[in-house]
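A note from the maintainers: we've had questions about how concatenated examples are separated. There is no special marker in the raw files; a new sequence line simply starts the next protein. For clarity in this README we add a label.
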Amino acid sequence: MWIYEKKLEFPVSIKKPDARLAKIMIEQYGGAYSNRV
């Protein structure tokens, strides 16, 4: 059995969170319920 963990290749630090930009980015990747994200 395989266990899949989604990890980034390098650490990312978010200095100033932007909810509006995050929503736009999620929609570009197929929406909130997409299996591709």
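[label: protein 2]
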Amino acid sequence: MKLIAKTFHGLEEVLANELNEIGALNIKKVNRAVEFEGDLEVMYKANLHLRTAIRILQPLFEFKAKNDQELYDEVQKFDWSTLMTNKQTLAIDPVVFSEIFTHSQFVALKMKDAIVDQFRDKTGIRPSVDVENPDIRLVIHMAKDKATVSLDSSGDSLHKRGYRVQGHKAPLNEVLAAGMVLLSGWNPKIPLVDPMCGSGTILMEAVMIAKKFAPGLNRKNFGFMTWNSFNKELWNKIVEEAKEKVEHPRLHIYGSDINMGALDIARESALSFRFNRDINFKVSAFEKLELERPKGMIITNPPYGERLMKDKDIKDFYRMIGNQLQDEFLGYDAWLLSSDTKALNNLGIEVSDKVKLFNGALECGFYQYKINYGKLPKIIKFR
């Protein structure tokens, strides 16, 4: 079957590599997604194993529509009884980029009407809508007059690993954090430090990567589990194989933050996945942090414009980061995610590499700095 794995901008290459590892075929990178082909087993593995996928879609059909009546008629041409019954619930997620259809929820409403009207005409009973926990979740992607209707095999977004404390909003999505670790090329045999770790998302994703712990292993529900085609025996086999592949290497992973409340959340997340022995947490400001490990990697998402109020604070803060990296972290590779290029100029360190990423709607750069030298000696000027 043809499938699509959705992701964030800048992570397409990483996602394509992940898909290759699970046996996907005809892999093709597109904007914020990767198209591929595979059987039921590959689709199940994609939902369970992919760290940089947001959701896995199965395209059903395409059509063109120049008005709401054409949209309604085209959706009604599909036999929806092959996918669901009138007793099952459905939800429709619209993604619309069109001058013809300017309201995405209107597109979803017309599609919903076409589906439930078909059931009413055939059976006398209309299926119900459940936007929170539907049996069948559909996605309609409308670009100009071209529509693609897909089944959502994931249900909840795949970034929901199950370790985040309920009600807590971290500044970094799990998929993005995993992508950052994979983009950095971190080797689990060397130390990893996040000196401004907040609730620990980067570190949790790093531990899962090092342990070969499938990101969906602790999830109970996926969208495909309510499909008529769900093969429970095959799914259980894939899950058991994933459990057997989990490794338990000795890791040197360190997280620090000045916010004790955030670290409490990070510790709770680690404990919930039994990673508490894999991550060393410490309350500390970055400028006071000292490590005994001579070489390693830093991956961090420091505060930038939206999280620091004054320009002067931002300049001083980033200057401090640069000084600390050169004072205490010689021999380290440092990767920083930031949207503030002006602030980064205050680091005083040359950029080795950069990847364009998005944190939500915010365009960011993921910057690599090789800390191969200490602070340069002061130049004494003679009058």
